[in-house]
Amino acid sequence: AEEPLLSRKQGDYRTLPKKDARRVEKEYYRTLKNQRLFLAAFSAVLGNFNFGFALVYTSPVIPALQKSSSPSLKLNGVMASWFGSVFTLGVAAGGLGTMYFNDRLGRKSSIMFSAVPSVIGYLFLASAQELWMLMVGRLLTGFAGGVTSASIPVYISEISHPLVRGALGSCPQIMAVLGALCLYALGLLLPWRWLAVAGEVPVLFMVLLLSFMPDSPRFLISKGKEAESVSALKWLRGEDVDYWWEYDQIRDSVNKQSNPISWAEIRQPYIFKPLGITLLMRFLQQLSGVTPVLVYLQLIFDSTEVILAPQFDAVIVGAVRLASVAVAAFTMDRAGRKLLLYISAGVMLASNLTLGFYIHYIPLLPHNSSAAVGNGTQEGQVAGLMSNGLTVIPLIATMFFIIGYAMGWGPITWLLMAEVLPLKARGVVSGLCVLVSWLTAFALTKVFLLVKETYGLEVPFFFFSVICVINLIFAYLLPETKGRSLERIEAYFQTGRKSFLESFRQHK
């Protein structure tokens, strides 16, 4: 089994002049076949589909349970709030657990393990006879979502190559949005118990497909399984390409990081800089307001006099999110990460400011205008037309906020997390990022209604606007990772910006 490793020719690439080595690298990536790579990525992101499905499960279920004829299942306002938010605590716990799972079980096995709490959680939801069973079901499905959120981006980044890593890196976000859209659509057709049964399908399909997929070559090398790593790389890249060159690059990088990360190493720039980038990005991503906007979308529309049938709200939002993430996936490897982050933060800033000023300055116009129309005066008719036109503003602003988030700060934060972290820290820190992200989401979702009642609905949106300005500044300070291999990105944090840019110019 070890014969190919011992008998193959070595040193072919190491003895080439630097310029020729860059040319070989460029030509190598162009010869790769991606069909199996795409299949492996699809198998993994089914976990994100399930995450999106589970995240918005409460959207059609809470109204149904508030009208339940069973006293043991009827939700009041407080319990409905917990039923919706306890999921985020489960996600945070799952992210914390993945700090251990990613480096012990491996990336693929961690994703497959998430099926256990997911299946059990859906069983609790489908068979619930008491409120505590609903809470346990939400907590378990949230835990599964936290595991997949931390494992899947790392798995995809490590099996991908630079030419497609941006597009594949946005697939988790696309599938999560698609899962949410699927839940919204099924919510119009199925009772709430059968929605939980339907949630089992993508989970079981994910486990079935992943059982035939390879693990990350980088993880296998880090565990001393070189023969399995070669087989995995051969399967992902194709048998008739010279995958040995990439294997050498990966092995050299892994060998430099053979020991587990220690607390002393965290103080080293090549660790704490990418660590700071990933944690701050996840923190700022949530502070930009996406979770409260999605969770309280109907409340926002009701408060701003948007006339929209409730059963169509979520479907429209889901469709807009899906289209926006698809655009980001298509452009990420062309436009680059930084440009999309700029555009994303700018669009969210404009949307939040629009919502804030609309709520602050036009709180009573629709009611006054309706009264004027009832009087039948020409001024009243003009005011009525104005109010009907103005009530479209919060809907359009919300749609643009979702578009802005979905094309930049949504998918790219997950992609950069997997790109900039060094191998030895990737498994642990990805779990830490999920923990920080969803604890922030939980706190923000809880505080949002309190701030609204105390200071007014416009205040949260002005706060989100300030965060978006910070996001613009933060995006300017980030390094561009488009077209760089993971090994080259690691070299940037070890050797500095100048050598990184010079190596990229030579690579081009």
UniProtKB/TrEMBL annotation:
Pfam families hit by this protein: Sugar_tr (PF00083)
Keywords: Glycoprotein, Lysosome, Membrane, Sugar transport, Transmembrane, Transmembrane helix, Transport
Residues in coiled coil: none
Topological relation to the membrane, as annotated: Multi-pass membrane protein
Keyword Lipid metabolism carried by entry: no
Name of the protein in question: Solute carrier family 2, facilitated glucose transporter member 6
Annotated Gene Ontology cellular component terms: lysosomal membrane
InterPro entries: MFS_dom (IPR020846), MFS_sugar_transport-like (IPR005828), MFS_trans_sf (IPR036259), MFS_Trehalose_Transporter (IPR050549), Sugar/inositol_transpt (IPR003663), Sugar_transporter_CS (IPR005829)
Biological role stated in the UniProt entry: Probable sugar transporter that acts as a regulator of glycolysis in macrophages. Does not transport glucose.
Residues that span the membrane, as ranges: 37-59, 79-99, 111-129, 135-156, 163-186, 192-213, 339-361, 392-416, 428-449, 461-478
Organism of origin: Salvator merianae (Argentine black and white tegu)
Biological process annotations from GO: regulation of glycolytic process
